[in-house]
Amino acid sequence: MGQALQDILPPDYASGRFIGRALAPEGPCVIALRGGRIFDLTETVASVAGAVERRAFDGGRDLGPVEGGLPAGWGLLSPVDLQCVKACGVTFALSAIERVIEERARGDAGKAAEIRQMLEDKVGSGIRSVVPGSAEAAELKQALIDEGMWSQYLEVAIGPDAEVFSKSPVLSTVGAGAEIGVRSDSAWNNPEPEVVLVVDHHGEVVGATLGNDVNLRDFEGRSALLLSKAKDNTASCSIGPFIRLFDDGFGIDDVRQANVDLLIEGPEGYRLEGTNVMGQISRDPLDLVAQTLSEHHYPDGFVLFCGTLFAPTQDRDTPGGGFTHKVGDRVTISSQRIGKLTNTVTTSRDAPPWELGIGAFVRNLASRGLIGRI
User: CB under 8 Å, gap of 24 or more: what pairs does 100-104 form?
Assistant: First the structure.
């Protein structure tokens, strides 16, 4: 994993409750952190999705204090397993402007700076001042249409319906310490530091974690119909380090007030910092959950990326060229009450292949006599 558990947990971890997953020599295990100690819950509940549904967070085999780390031969995994992985986009005014930039630049990073200034001057104040779906938003939409400034991205930024998409297949997410992937043929891409809500099949939010919704700006910029190629690639979705469960000391209001910090450290000495301020989100997180549920049903629950305010525009190599990842970038996403998620960038082509799919997961649990405890 590369870091001690206490270094990737929030400072008040001993007073919080956390659930996650680890890979033991025999296979995936469900682990909980309570009172500063680690517990293996797998003999009672063999999936995080099952633990969420049954609220099976207590008990388990005591593995020792957090400071002692996981047992030898164990490694941390993404803390979600059978849940669907959903994401909302364009939930902040700045991200709406950046998506319009991608669209108008047709994925060409070199054109972005000029378009960014023009859009900020004409659109920025408007989309910051209206409530999505309101009468005022409808009036702004018509005014922008009249000026030839309308975009499909502004529709989901200020219209009644949020953008909701499937980010990553079940069991494909990577966790803290893993490599994250961008397509080898992408020339303009970036991390997206986000809060990820954990929701049961009734639609109740039970906790929160952190995520990196890795994005290819050149692909989506060429056409919104390339969203799946821009978002869903091997190792392109990182979640972790643990799910912090809601309790008397941590709840949805803490999510609403969270700051999510991003640090990118490049192999050539490049450094970029930014913050995703959840207080500036255009739609309330619970509204995003409700829109994701809509007329759908998620029997194993789902996790939901809430979107990001932060879009890195700081030039990296050439003036006006903006930011894009390089292999070897170290990306750290952190939030005071949730923890720290660190990953190193590689290409999706070269990332470790995704092999523990649903079939392999079920076969592993069956071989361990745990299939009935999912």
Answer: 100/151, 100/153, 100/154, 101/221, 102/217, 102/218, 102/220, 102/221, 103/151, 103/152, 103/153, 103/221, 103/224, 104/151
Residues 208 and 340 in one domain: yes
DSSP code, position 127: H
Tokens of 166: 């499937």
What is the number of structural domains in the chain?
3
Domain housing 141: 94-158
How far is it, in rounded angstroms, from Cα 189 to Cα 102?
11
* Distances 363 to 20, 356, 368, 372 between C-alpha atoms, Å: 21, 10, 9, 12
Tell me the per-residue pLDDT of 306-360, one tens digit each, with 9 for 90 and over.
Answer: 999 877 878 888 887 789 999 999 999 999 999 999 999 999 999 999 999 999 9
Query: Above 50 in pLDDT, residue 1?
Result: no
**347 contacts 183 by C-beta, under 8 angstroms:** yes
Name the band, by pLDDT with cuts 50, 70 and 90, for residue 98: confident
The Cα–Cα gap between 329 and 323 comes to: 12
The predicted-structure confidence for 38-85, as pLDDT tens digits, reads as follows: 999 999 999 999 999 999 999 999 999 999 999 999 999 999 999 999
* Pair (150, 256) in one structural domain: no
